[in-house]
Amino acid sequence: MLIGSYSPALVVISIFVAILASYTALDLTGRIATTKGRAAYLWMCGGAMAMGVGVWSMHFIGMLAFNLPIDLGYDITLTALSLLISILSCGFALWLVSQPRLPLSQLLFGALIMGAGISGMHYTGMAAMRMQPGIDYDPRLFSASLLIAFGASLAALWIAFRLRQNTPYVRLARSGAAVVMGFAIVGMHYTGMAAARFGDGSFCGALGNGLSGKGLDNLVLITTLAVLIIALLTSVLDARLEARTAVLAQSLTEANKELTQLALHDTLTGLPNRILLADRIDQAMHRVTAHGGCFALMFIDLDGFKPVNDAFGHHMGDQLLREVAQRLREDLRSEDTLARIGGDEFVLLVQLGEPDDALRLAARQVSLVSRSFRVAEHELQISASIGIAVYPGNGLNAQELLMNADAAMYHAKGTGKNGYSFFDASMNGNARRQLQLLQDLRNALEHHQFRLHYQPKFDAANGRPVGAEALLRWEHPQHGLLLPDKFIELAEKTGLIIPIGDWVLNEACRQMREWYVQGYTDWRIAVNLSALQFCHVGLVKSVTGALERYELPANNLTLEITETTAMNDADVSMVVLQQLADMGVDLSIDDFGTGYSSLMYLKRLPANELKIDRGFVRDLEHDSDDAAIVSAIVALGQALGLRIVAEGVETGVQQTFLTQLGCDSLQGYFLGHPLPPEGFMQGIHLAEHKA
Residue ranges of the alpha helices (H) in 300-342? Predict the structure, then answer.
C-alpha cells in the first residue's frame, strides 16, 4: 500500500482558507438578510460563488498538500464538477438561512443536503485523480467523514441563521464562529483523506491530460483569496454604505417630520395651523356623513389682547398667547382640535353628542380665558368672544363653516364681548356686507373716492373765522356719501387707517396752502389722528413730508389726538408729541374730560389746546353738572396756558355761555356745518360780512 504524506504549509493554508470562507459566508448571510428584492438574489448568487470557491479551494489545496510516491494529476471535468457541487450546496445553504424562520426539521433537512453536497464535492474531487486501481476507503473513517460533513453543515447553518442580523459585537461573534466552522470543514476533509487507501502499484490515470500539481497550489490559493477578499470587502463596504444610507434616511425622516410640523403647525404655540385645521374639518365632515353625529367649530377671538401687546410689547403678547393656548388645550379631549389661525384668533373643533353640548363647552372656554394670566410677574386680564357654527346645518365645507363661525364671533363681540354666540343666517348677510365694504374700502384710495369736508372754527370773542377742522367723507359709488362712523372702525381694524390718514394729512395741508396763498395766513387746519396713526413709527416723517410738500408753515397745522390715546402710554406719547411740538405743529387734546387723565402727565404734555367734548356742551342749558365740568375744564386749560376750543355748539345760549366762560374758539352746527371747500368758503365770506 502506498503511504502518503502532507505538506505542513499547504495544510495550514487550507485551514486558513476554510476559516476565511466560513467568515465570508457568515458575513454574506448578513448582507442577504438586510436586503430586499433583486439585490438579495444578487448577493445570494455572489455569495454562493464566493463561498463555494472557498470551500472547494480548501479541499483542493488539501488535495495538493497530499503527496504519494507517485506523480499525481487531476481530471479537469471531475474537478470542475466538484467545484460546481460546492457552489450549488453553498447556494442552497445561503438560501436556507435567508428564510424568515428556520425550524428544526428544516434545519436538519438542510444540513443533510449541504452535508451531502460537501461530501459529494470532496469525493468527486478525490475521484478526479482517476487512480488505477481505484481508491479503497476505510468504512469507519468514510462514515465518520460523512457524519462530520453533516455535523459541520448543521453547525454552519444554525450559526449563520443566528448571526445574520447586525447586532452589537456581531463581527466578533462571526469571527469565532468562522474558526469553529473552518475546523469542522477541514476535519471532514482530512478525515475523508485518511479513509483513502492506495494499493501498491497504483498510478494516476489523470496524469497525462489532467491538471498538474506543480504550481497549481499557488494559482488556486491566489485565485481563491482574491475571490474571497473581493466578496468580503464588497460586503463590508456595502454594509457601511447601508449604514450611512440608514443614517441619512433617518435624518431625512426627521427632517421631513420637522418640515411637516412647520408646515402644519403654528410656530409660536405648536398648535395646528389653518392648513391642518381644514384637513381635520374635512375628516370630521366625512365621519359625520358616514356614521352620523355632529361637531362644532368655535371661533375664539381674544378681547383686550391688543392693549396688552401695545403696552408690554410683542414678547409679552407672544407669551400670553402661549399661556392661552396651553390653558385651552388642557381642557380638551384627544379627539378635539385646537388651532391658531393667526394673531389672537383660535379655532376649536370639537365632537358633540348633541348640538346643545356646544353651549356648555363655549361657556367653559369663556370662563377659562377670563381668569387672570400670570406672565413675567404681571397679572394680565383678558376675555374671549366665541362664535359657534355646528355641522351639519351651518355650512357645507370647511371654508363656509369657518366664515360662519367668524360671523358669529363678531356678533358676540358686538353684544358686549366676553361671551359666545351661535351662528344665525342673518349674521352671514352682515358678514358678507362687511366683507364687501372692506373690499370697497381697499379700492377707495386708488379710485379717489375720499373727500374732505371742513367745519369752520370761530373766535369766541369777535366771531371771526380762525380755521377749520378737516372731516373725512367717503363718496361710495353705491351707498353715496358715508360718514366716518360707517367705515373708520373697519379701517382701524385692518390697518387701512394708516394710508387713509396719510391722505387726509396731505389733502388738508394742500387745501390749507390754497387758503394761505389767498391771505388766510393766521388760520389753522385741524386734522384728527387715530390711535393707530399716533402709534405708527412713520407719523413724524409723514407730518414733515406733508408740510414740506405744500410749503406750509408748521403752526398752520393742528393735530388732534384724543385724551385716551395721549394717556394710553404717556411716556411714549410724550416723546412723539415733543417731536411734533419741536417742529412747530400745534397739538390739541380732543374730547377732553371723557377719558381718565393724569393731571401730572397732562401738565407735561406739550399741547397747545384743549378741546371740550360735545357731550358736555349738548346739555349745558339743562344740566348744572355739565356746566360745572365745562367751567372746570376752561379754568384748568387757562391755568396751564392752553387755548380752549368747544365743539358741538348748536344754540345761541351755548355760544353765549361758552364765550362768557372764556373759551377761545367755538365750532358747531349753529356756527357752520362741515362742507366741501367751495361751500366752506362761501359760508366764511358770509360770516366775515356779518362780523
Answer: 305-312, 314-330
